[in-house]
Amino acid sequence: MDGLDLDWFYLPLSTLELTYTLSIVFIAGVLRGLAGFGFSALCFFALAPVFSAQTIVPLMFAMEVMASVHLLPKVWRQIPWRWVAILCLGTLFGTPLGVVALQYWQSDLVRGLAGGGVLIACFALWRQWHFKAAETLIWLAMAGFVSGFVNGLASIGGLVVAVYMLSSNMPLTAMRAGLILFFLLTDVYGLFWLNGHNLISKDLPSLLLIMMPVMLIANQIGYKLFDRIDMAVMRKFTLGLLSGLAATAMYSAISQ
């Protein structure tokens, strides 16, 4: 809040900005617990008017790690281990390149490119695209590479993997479990690279302290709703919301 500076604690937000931020975090947290993805993408675009891309990316990495730690014991038996292992192999090489790009690219350019990527992902999901070679080693590794690059650049690599998983015949339960573990491993790795390039904001601990309880509560609510909500309806709502935010991000970047 304005003027709040207690040695280690500083929150660079007005009361209105804080209320808006926590509302977005709650909505995104419910979606994350329900579908296994969408938290970072929704926050990245919806919070763009409040934070720079360089602030949002490490913040989302840290929050995704905590969300995965929270849910991982609940989905452990459903994890598609081969998928996760090969995707992570590709991510090892893609993430550093995305982090380097984050240092030098303008935030508006980052936002616009990320928005375009999300629109492409949403289009594929709307069309219920099926990729017969989705489980081959080469394509899995390539998907992991692209996801790692986009994740290091804009913290939305999960959408790439979600699109890829949905293009196969993977059950939603396995997909959600795989994404939860994937986020844990890749975001810890991403934080390592961000810290190595001095891209961790001094405001990160304060922002985490305020946002984390809201996100964890919402995460649990979303997890509980998984078996109670028509997933087709929820899927359409999520894709519509992400598509609108991505289009807004692209328009904002182009108009600068």
What can you see in these coordinates?
With 256 residues, this protein is mainly α. It has one domain. It is 77% helix and 2% strand. It has helices at residues 15-35, 39-46, 53-75, 81-104, 107-126, 137-154, 157-166, 172-196, 204-225, 231-255, and strands at 5-6, 9-10. Strands 1-2 form a two-stranded antiparallel ribbon. The two termini are 28 Å apart.
Question: What is this structure, in a nutshell?
Answer:
This protein is mostly helical. Helix content is 77%, strand content 2%.
Order of helical and strand elements: EEHHHHHHHHHH
Proportion of residues in helical segments: over 70%
Q: Using the CA coordinates, give the radius of gyration.
A: 17 Å
Helix run count: 10
Biggest sheet, in brief?
2 strands, antiparallel
Structural class: mainly alpha
In terms of topology, how is this protein built?
Layout: E1 5-6, E2 9-10, H1 15-35, H2 39-46, H3 53-75, H4 81-104, H5 107-126, H6 137-154, H7 157-166, H8 172-196, H9 204-225, H10 231-255
Jot down its keywords.
256 residues; mainly alpha; two-stranded antiparallel ribbon; 10 helices; 2 strands; disordered N terminus
